[in-house]
Amino acid sequence: MSTPLKVAVTGAAGQIGYSLLFRIASGALGGDREVELRLLEVTPALKALEGVVMELDDCAFPHLAGVEIGDDPKEVFDGVELALLVGARPRSAGMERKDLLEANGAIFTAQGRALNDAAADNVRIQVTGNPANTNALITAANAPDIPRDRFSALTRLDHNRAIAQLSRKTGVPAHDITRMTIWGNHSATQYPDLFHTLVDGRPATELVDREWIESDFIPTVAKRGTAIIEARGLSSAASAASATIDAARSWLFGTPADDWQSMAVVSDGSYGVPEGLVSSFPVTTGGGSWSIVQDLEIDDFSRSRIDASVAELQEEADAVRSLGLV
Ligand code: NAI
């Protein structure tokens, strides 16, 4: 019998947490392996989190080995093998970008240090909380003993959204669509690239035209989060939780042969993305490792879109550097 997989979730009493915890506890992440949840919240939210834990208890999940909650990152991260950093400071009315980066900088600086001191040697860290790429950059910079390739930021939701749009357009089920790519930042500048995508084994570009790609597909995927807020009055939560699990599961257990996932990782300079930026790439994953898919042909159209998103990442990185956060 293997030991339980120790998974930390931050922001556990939030919207995404309310969907994420129950899916993890039901086996969506670890399969038959037991899971121990370590849940971090700010002190005022601990009471609400206690209620969530009561509900987890009441599900009597067979693979849930235990749940611990707390407001001290070092205690909560003790021995964790997977840290899903979901909690973040949202932008409030009138808040400047600099203030947002600073507020999140404080959270992810502290969590990076705590992970550095307390997490298991084999820890993998995946940031969902926005601005996710830059929060991952800050976390990594503050955890010098953890190798750079253990940090990622979530662009799997954008990846899944892109597959969903293409599936709808072509009438082919989502599971027959492979090799989708999101490049760059998890923001409106992201570039969903279907020029290497296969739809039931056929190039997507044989089934959709350039006009649809430029005027419909790219803006719909990039602005999907806003469309959901307008419709629901709240930001996407269940789909974000689902993508958080998809990405972590692929990272730990592997992408299928002949497919890849989009994942924001610390750039090694591939595709001209400056080394050190946390940018989304097509990656193959498995056994807790990833590698960027190499040698994809990038035409001028794709190049300019990738460059625009990477320029935004560079600006964010420069801003947090000037604040002394990295
Ligand atoms: P929410 O506001 O419902 O929950 C966030 C939770 O984080 C709150 O309970 C809050 O108390 C907690 N929190 C704040 N600071 C914390 C800290 N220092 N330590 C631990 N917990 C802390 O937000 P929701 O909807 O659950 O979203 C969470 C984050 O995920 C947001 O930043 C959101 O923008 C981001 N997001 C990212 C997506 C992606 O694809 N990367 C998609 C959707 C949301």
From TrEMBL:
**Protein residues bound to substrate:** 91, 97, 130, 161
Specify which residues bind NAD(+) according to the UniProt entry for this protein: 11-17, 104, 111, 128-130
E.C. numbers: 1.1.1.37
**Which EC class, in a word?**
oxidoreductase
What's the catalysed reaction? (S)-malate + NAD(+) = oxaloacetate + NADH + H(+)
Which molecular function terms from Gene Ontology are attached? L-malate dehydrogenase (NAD+) activity
| UniProt keyword terms in alphabetical order | NAD, Oxidoreductase, Tricarboxylic acid cycle
Organism of provenance: Nocardioides terrae
Q: Which residues form the Lactate/malate dehydrogenase N-terminal domain?
A: 6-146
Give every Lactate/malate dehydrogenase C-terminal domain span.
Answer: 155-320
Entry's HAMAP family? Malate_dehydrog_2
Instruction: Summarize the protein's role.
Output: Catalyzes the reversible oxidation of malate to oxaloacetate.
Which residues catalyse the reaction? 186
BP term (GO), one: malate metabolic process
Family that this chain belongs to: Belongs to the LDH/MDH superfamily. MDH type 2 family.
What name has this protein been given in UniProt? Malate dehydrogenase
Its taxonomic path starts at: Bacteria, Bacillati, Actinomycetota, Actinomycetes, Propionibacteriales
